[in-house]
Predict the structure.
Amino acid sequence: MRARFDEALAVLTTAWRGEPFTFHGRYHHVSDTRIAVTPVQRPHPPLWVAILRAEAARHVGAQGRSVMLIPYATCASVHDLGPIAAEHRLGVASSDAAAGPCEVAAALHAYVSASQDGARGECEPYLDRYVGSRLYARRRSYDELMDAGLLLAGDPDTVAAQLGKVAGHGVDHVLLLANFGAMPHSLVSASLTRFAGEVMPRFANATTPPSA
């Protein structure tokens, strides 16, 4: 429930001030309490709120907060990211609470292979295992996720092109889900090495490069 979540977040951010406080809301009651360890950042650490529904993006933006999402779980295709980012921007524009940048982050499964042909065989079994284990997500195949633009997989050229499309839909940051489905460490390490060495440099001079 959104109201319960918002109230719990209010308790948390109040506690982060490091001062004794009392809070009596609809769902939570705290009396004369103070946390022992306070954050270095003031007024509190940057907050990213995970969302499952597009309509939540504007609500979070209106609170002056950034959002993050895992598109494979809730979006039909990469094209859904644009409306979500737009809704978030509308919320931010209506807010007086934004104390810093309010951005959109998307977490995508990623695998960079040495060749386009090799990506599927190296990645697909572990992706299927991961997706099959999720309780609150659409269970889609490698091909379905690739067709939807919600999977970063292929050789460096392909992954760079996929990232460009994601950024073009208003996403500020890309989080890589690089180790999934009990993928062997050797494959994870090789994929990340290729991403860092052959994909990321292509965005070094971009105006708003996707970050990982």
User: Anything to note?
Assistant: The longest strand covers residues 104-112.
